[in-house]
Amino acid sequence: MPELPEVETTRRGIEPTVAGARVEHVVVRERRLRWAIPREVERKLTGATMLGVRRRAKYLLLESERGTAIAHLGMSGSFTVVAAGSKPGAHDHYDLVFDSGKALRFTDPRKFGSLLWGGRDPLRHKLLAELGPEPLSAEFNGAWLKERSLGRRIAVKSYLMMPAVVAGLGNIYASEALYRARIHPRRAAGRIALRRYEVLAEAIRGVLGDAIKAGGTTLRDFADARGRPGYFAQQLDVYDREGLDCRSCNAEIRRRVIGQRSSYYCVNCQR
DNA sequence: ATGCGGACCTGTTAGC
DNA sequence: TGCTAACAGGTCCGCA
After folding, report:
1. What is the enclosing helix (H) or strand (E) of A201?
2. What's the domain count of chain A?
3. How confident is the model at residue A1 (pLDDT cuts 50, 70, 90)?
4. pTM of the full predicted structure?
5. Active-site residue A42, yes or no?
6. Which nucleotide is nearest to A152 if distance is taken from CA to C1'?
7. Which of A3, A128, A144, A211 has its CA 20 to 30 A from that of A221?
8. From the CA of A252, how many Å to the C1' of C3?
């Protein structure tokens, strides 16, 4: 479900509720998410004042005066702002209950999400330390993509989905960016010219930026902090469009599994 | 070092 | 209509 634009949409949605709020208590109903929620999270956050919410890749950093909790939405997770004490549903695994009378509620049917303690320096946490540059930052560019790809035979689509190469580019936007850059998803990463990587880096920035503007992509069930869908699905060129016409050349969009993930592309436009 | 496949878990949809 | 199989937006980890 959530890729970088959806996580960023969530971040913007929950930030006003979280920032400045004091945590009255933390309710954990299901501790066994991807990793068990450490009790340290409840210990540290209870009574703490929250400073804000940052994002690194698809991780949400819930910053408090006593340190930072690291949350991930996994495949099916979402945060919503609810009234404190509102009745939980079957997949509502934890709440941060604030003294404002509101609560941040985490819902995740598949339990691939996580909540960990990142301490004072969360960027040094094992899960975050090795991440590549943020795709919307200046350090991310064609030269970086080229340099990291030297000699590598991995399909460029799979390469783009490695967290150490680009932080937080997911399956939808990897396909979309390759389409915009006119690069075939199975092309070996090490056999792409710097010039084309420059175009690709710009395409990645563009597609992510456009998706954030649209509030993310809702295919089946993504909803923001107020329960509203994102509208970028209407602008997708290839993802989930198997058998439909390429918007540029009218050839049929194909679907192919690359690295165990569905990839969509136009055989005519992408080489 | 690289790259692949398995693992985690549940819900929805396509197909017979 | 009902059952079963395939598939889903993530990504870590262990193995070859």
Report:
1. helix A194-213
2. 2
3. low
4. 0.96
5. no
6. B2
7. A128
8. 33
